[in-house]
Amino acid sequence: MSTAANTNGTTPAAAAKPNPAAAVATWADERLGIATATKKQIRKVFPDHWSFMLGEIALWSFVILLLTGVFLTLWFKPSMGEVVYNGSYDQLRGIPMSEAYESTLHISFDVRAGLLMRQMHHWAAMLFIAAMLVHMMRVFLTGAFRKPRELNWVIGGVLILLGILEGFAGYSLPDDLLSGTGLRIADGLVKATPVLGSYMSFFMFGGEFPGDVIIPRLYIAHVLLIPGLLLALIAAHMLLLVYHKHTQWPGPGRTEENVVGYPMMPVYAAKAGGFFFIVFGTVALMGGLMTINPVWRFGPYNPSEVTAGSQPDWYMGIAEGLLRIMPGWETHIFGITLSWNIFLPGQVAPIALLMVVLAYPFIEQWVTGDKREHHLLQRPRNAPTRTAFLAAMISVYGLLWAAGGNDILATQFHLDLNTITYFMRGAIFVIPPLVFILTKRWCISLQRHDNDMLLHGYESGVIMRDAVGGYSEKHLPLSPDHAYTLTARERDEVYAGISGPDANGVPAKKLKLDGLRAKASQAWFATNVQKPTVEELEEGHHHAELEHEHDAPLEGHAADGHQFDGRHDVADESLRPSH
Which PROSITE patterns does the UniProt entry name for this protein (predicted)? Predict the structure, then answer.
């Protein structure tokens, strides 16, 4: 005799043996509402594109920095107290040095996996800043900083600044000759501050450079203050990303109102987790196989010595280059020396550059007058001025990076140091404008090419001969998906400005500022190639249909080779042998 199961009950089925983990989760959910709060978020959709992984590389590099940094803090001694080294490295045994440098050598030679962790930590720091910069360039090129993401752009800029300061602090902690040279440069930058410079230096170093407190202070900033700020800003950055939803590339089915991609759980979480292990494995290979910052080769810091050919980490190259090519300008007023050759490149230029970077979304918004929300990305070619500006800035960075190694260039290529310096002084004003012009013209040429494909189709590679003996290449229509992607952009509008009083005879306010905006808009958009109108597209398609009708009678029995037109199955076709 069988008993039918009742499926109309009001009480949910329960396991015969309760699961302890489920019981704990149920208890927490009844009091905190965790399931209700996270149910929507774990199903949140994220678009999928290779360029979006750049931000993930920065995130996972930061995680690796935290993991390896915790390991290193267990053995590092942030003290400038003097000791005599008696460790494993023979070449430095018996030499007086600071406890910071001695503990760094101990980690490198005597702690199991210590050198691996040191080098993983350093490589992860380099990768962290590089990934942030490249990620920010991707955001810049695609217009992902536009409304409503201006604040996230500002947070990203501050993250890069904090990452550079964090890197400099960590780079200085070993107290070797190379890091001490970097601290000496920092001391010079601080002392170049008008009037207050010497007082600021005494406060920072606890007396005359190098003092005996700078390493402990940098240690606190490196392991506590700056990481805390980085964690808070990364959390804010991620929360705003989720709140605003991720941007996506234009394409069929993708609009400003939706997101096409994969849900957070389980697809995106699995992909992100796997990507973390890829980044971790790559950093581990670099740390195990590629030497970085071999402090034992430099020896302990001595203020009377300097490392020949010393170079900072790559992200400090722009500051180093500015310092090296700046002319030696000084002003003496009332017994006070103003070192413009250090103050301008070391303090004014970096701050000005940071302000321009942080303000850029608002500057572009003012020029274009675009106050709408944007969730679809722009192809870099469709924003020629912005793309050209970034290319020019990359050339500036490259030149300054090279200028920061002018002594290395001189010794390696047997060139005159002064000649390199004079060349860089001129190139910094000549090459970036040329790069800007060339990049903008390149983008405009690509826009014209896109319009030609939309109106006439793509080049098939098939050469046609007409009745009068002329030759032309056969064009085939684009696929609907490709055509949609090329047309998924808006036509640019040049702002004309306000002219004279309004309809009531009231003169317009801020005419000069409005005129400046009109000129900026003209420079921004005037040379752009706009996408074809609906009428132009219809005319182009009609012309293509007429061309197809003209060629149709010849297909199948035209001159040999014409059957390879992209419309027929040619698996069994072959050309006649030549005679």
Answer: CYTB_CTER, CYTB_NTER
